[in-house]
Amino acid sequence: MPPPVAFGPRKDDEEVARGRAVFEARKCAECHAPPTFTANGRYDVGLDDAVGNRRFNPPSLRGVEYREPYFHDGRAATLEDVFLEHRHPRDAEWTAQDVSDLAAYLRTL
Ligand code: HEC
User: Fold this and answer.
1) Ligand 1 centroid, distance to 82 Cα (angstroms)
2) Which of 9, 46, 59, 100 could form an SS bridge with 13, CB 3.0 to 4.6 Å?
């Protein structure tokens, strides 16, 4: 066990706090609203399925770290891929830093 850090928040806590700020700034809660981190209704986030459906109910993000792969057909292997590769929620521009912070936050849900 490393000794407790004497001053200031731990690095992990800072990452999670930054990730929460990204979640708020990007308005993720419009479709993944706390406390359940989902919403009623179905939304087009630019993905389709084998029979052409484009609108899906947002999955709850509670415990999301244990449910990879992601999206209805598992096309995103990791949480990071949801954003970096598939540009969720829709054609989003992401920096690696924001995605890494956001993923740290999502892993606490
Ligand atoms: C317009 C509504 C909408 C917004 C805004 C939105 N999402 Fe989603 N999200 C969805 C839908 C719908 C899906 C499911 C898509 C699918 O499975 O094809 C999804 C899927 C996900 C998944 C995959 C979950 C799983 O179990 O497969 C994650 C993670 C996620 N969203 C996180 C976020 C984050 C973080 C944000 C903010 C940056 C965000 N979403 C913004 C609607 C939205």
Assistant:
1) 8
2) 9
d(CA 104, CA 21) in angstroms, rounded, equals: 12
Amino acid at residue number 58: P
Atom of ligand 1 nearest to the CA of 28: 37
| Contact of 68 with 77, CB cutoff 8 Å | yes
Other CB atoms within 10 Å distance of the CB of residue 37: 20
Per-residue model confidence as pLDDT tens digits over 78-100: 999 999 999 999 999 999 999 99
Length of the chain: 109
* Terminal-residue alpha carbon distance, the chain: 25
- The CA distance from 33 to 94, in Å, is 21
Contact predicate 17/109, CB 8 Å: no
The pLDDT tens digits for 33-66 are 999 999 999 999 999 888 899 999 999 999 999 9
